[in-house]
Amino acid sequence: MHADNARPWTRWWWFASEIQEAQIDRDLEWLKANHFGGVEVAWIYPFNRRDTVATPRQEWLSPEWSEKVRYAKLKADSLGLGFDVTFGTLWPFGDTQVPREEATMLLNDSSFRQVLRLHWEHPRKGLVVDHLNEQALRNYAERMGKALKPALQSGTQSGIFVDSWEVEQRYLGTTGFMEDFRAIYGYDLEPYLDSLYVSRLPYQHVLYDYQRLISQLVIDEFYRPFSAIAHELGAYSRAQCAGAPCDILQAYASVDVPESEALLYEPYYSNIPAAAAAWTGRPKVTAEAFTCLYGWPADWMKREQTADLKLLADALFANGVNQVIWHGKAMGRTEKDTFFASVHLGPSGNLARELPVFNQYLTKVSQALQQGHTYSKVAVYLPLEDQWIKGEMPKEKQYIWAWSHNEHRYLQLPQFLQPYHPLWINANLLKEANVNDGKLQSGQTEVETLYVDANYLDTASLKAFIRAAQSDLKIVMQQVPQPPGLNTDTVGYQKLVDTLLQLPSVYRRWESISTGISPVVTGADLPEYWCRESGTGLTCFFAHPKTKTVSFPMGYGQSLMENGVSRPVKIHYNGHEVPVKLDFQPYQSILLHVDTQGAVTFEDITFVPETPKLEARPEKEKERWEVE
Fold it and tell me: If you count DSSP H runs as helices and E runs as strands, how many of each does the chain have, helices first?
């Protein structure tokens, strides 16, 4: 993404139709006038997705199709707008040209191949490409890249994008998976398949071994090759790894621009891609924002309230996002053409009146949060092994698009560590980091200690902890870990545990170490916040305390507030303890800067949206949300 482009972008849906250059011009000029910074083109189904008739359209990946994409890229360039493309039609990756032997398959059903629904070629049936097979991905990318090259190699650099994981997960496999599993783990998976997701031992250890191999394949055969393919095409990679059955931090660390999603994921989920960006020195963390804001799929379409969107955006900023991708803008024949699961961007609807000034607000905050690097004092181990062993989430936590703990959907940083502005970390990122003078350093981020609260840890994690502790990094081990996996060498494992716990820089309780670690912000009932450090000092964004109420789905008018609220805090920076009174006016968050001498400057980010209206969910929309 353009380094100097902090303006919000939007997903731009191209419905399967005969795309006209006049449509392209109209939409891009409207977006420019409303202070957008760029677009992400997504090719989807015909306007009437239930129609079984082949709607006239440019043929998928044809020269005529490629020319329309190239035209749009050049038009965006002429307007100073960025231009990214989804690397396929709808999502996940696939089309009618994916051969059966290169399509997503399951271990428990040899006849299954995942069908790609509602794509550009609808009603023709396509298949989802095998995401555990790099060669299948590259075969798909060869024709996709050829069709996109005229656009990608014209003008400024573009990105290629992959949306959140929507590949079948239960019993996911690939050619040769069972043989590879046996070679790695020393036993056959076949006898356990019928009970793979049973939440009791020993099946949970088998599930762990299965998830570990799946994770390796997802990262090595999909996310890393995807990023390499983008570079080969002269582009950068941008990805939502949300929902992928893998080491999620490692997946996000594999791409150039990690992207979060809200509100189908809670705002605090954004801490995961933000942490991956911090440890790898990635400057931007984007978020697909406002998706299904009021419920599934899109309650109050065209009646959305800007104040509600601002509350969610501020929650995202306070959880590490520094650029918003609206979801989104439909390129339709008329304003009646909309995407089914989004807020509405266009000349009609509630948002149109305030859109330019709201986008200016989003830009100003994004610019501030893109400066320097993320500032933290404590790394927190993301308990990957625990999540994999747990298997299915409780029914009350599941949605039609979410079912497994391996998605990390509800994983939150410990609340008591909030004063230290903690960051998630995993064993691989820890292994790649440096420990100097007892401080963990990676990218430009530096922390003073590692906090671990996990019931299960694999040997690779233990070895990474030992190496760091031997270099004097302070580590808090809240639990004595157990070995995951069915055939783990328990004797060798226990030796590693004993070695780790006997090191002088390893502590068993947070209270034993907390007085020696400098906090970032202290105070009662701290608001959500994010901090970035640059050469001029520390920039802090404090979200209005009401962002803590944001959860899926938001209530219509949930942002309504009548009175201000204050939070006295102390900011600890560069040897200074700076008292600051955070006076939150209705609908306002706070952006401030602390210089290296401890002087505080408040930045004016005032944006007062129209007063929201409180309304109960209409019965018809409520019923639709519960049924679909």
Answer: 15, 29
Distance of CA 114 to the CA centre of its chain: 24
> Closest Cα partner for 314 from 368, 250, 354, 391?
368
The SS3 assignment for 566 reads strand
Residues 6+ positions from 233 with CB-CB distance below 8 Å: 145, 148, 149, 152, 153, 160
3-state secondary structure of 439: strand
Residue 623 pLDDT: 44
Identify which of 562, 278, 244 has the alpha carbon closest to the alpha carbon of residue 433.
Answer: 278
CA dist 430 and 436 (Å) reads: 13
Task: Give the separation between CA 234 and CA 274, rounded to whole angstroms.
Answer: 25
Whether the Cβ atoms of residue 103 and residue 76 lie closer than 8 Å to each other: no
In this model, does residue 624 exceed pLDDT 50? no
pLDDT tens figures, 561-608? 999 999 999 999 999 999 999 999 999 999 999 999 999 999 999 999
Distance CA 244, CA 242 (A): 6
For 467, the token pair is: 């190496």
From CA 213, how far away is CA 488, in angstroms rounded?
15
Pairwise CA distance, residues 116 & 93, whole Å: 8
Cβ of 180: how many Cβ atoms within 10 Å?
Answer: 16
Distance CA 420, CA 551 (A): 24
Q: Under DSSP, is residue 497 helix (H, G, I), strand (E, B) or coil?
A: helix
3-state SS class at 400 = coil
Burial 125-150 (b: 16+ CB within 10 A, else e): ebbbbbbbbbebbbbbbeebbebbeb
Task: Kindly report each contact of residues 400-406 with a partner whose C-beta sits within 8 Å and lies 24 or more positions away, as own/partner.
Answer: 400/296, 400/628, 401/166, 401/243, 401/264, 402/243, 403/169, 404/169, 404/245, 406/169, 406/211, 406/245, 406/246
Between 308 and 52, name the one with better pLDDT: 308
CB 1 within 8 A of CB 82: yes
Q: Which amino acid is at 371?
A: Q
277: exposed, middle or buried (C-beta count within 10 Å: 0-12, 13-18, 19+)? buried
3-state DSSP assignment of residue 19: coil
Tens digit of pLDDT for each residue in 467-508? 999 999 999 999 999 999 999 899 999 999 999 999 999 999
> Which whole number is the average pLDDT over 611-626?
68
C-alpha neighbours within 13 Å on the C-beta side of residue 272: 30
The CA distance from 621 to 624, in Å, is 5
